Amino acid sequence: MIFFVPGTPTVTIENDTLTVELNIDKYELNAKYVSFSVFESSGKFVENSGQLPIKNQYVRWTTTVERGKEYKVRAFTYNVDGDKSGPGDYSGGVGTIPSEVSGITSIKALSDTSVRVDWPAVSSAKSYSIEYTTDKT
Fold first, then answer.
1. Contact, 35 vs 75, CB < 8 A?
2. Helix, strand, or coil here: 30?
């Protein structure tokens, strides 16, 4: 039984949760299951979803991912006989929020109104935000 390679999945990341969605072409009646393979942008394999049933020509799957990395996903379909399609195209790379700063290495008062704070760089961070308060309670 012949069937088509699936389309490109839509991938979103919110905090540490990666969500993959795929609409199945209405003409692809032989496809009964979908599996998603998650990769880091470097190409390193991360996880496979296993076979997920197609419901109303749609499949959605979520998983937890590491902060500070970018991920891409591709899909495979399976027919009723268990035959696996070739892989669909990779989604575009989607990044998580940066990993947390591992710790402040030094704090030094420079004046009555100025302080210097040092910490190890986070490679995936584009900027940092420092919050402070003068409330002593």
1. yes
2. coil
Please answer whether residues 100 and 34 qualify as being in contact, where contact means their C-beta atoms are separated by less than 8 angstroms: no
Q: What is the pLDDT of residues 72-120, one digit of tens each?
A: 999 999 988 888 998 999 999 998 877 777 788 888 888 888 888 888 8
38-52 pLDDT per residue, tens:
999 999 999 999 999
* Nearest CA among 83, 20, 18, 80 for reference residue 7: 20
DSSP 84: B
CA-wise closest residue to 76 among 65, 63, 61: 61
**pTM for this predicted structure:** 0.75
Tallying the residues shown for the chain, one arrives at: 137
What backbone torsions phi and psi does residue 96 show, to the nearest 5 degrees? -90, 180
Burial of 90 (0-12, 13-18, 19+ CB in 10 A): middle
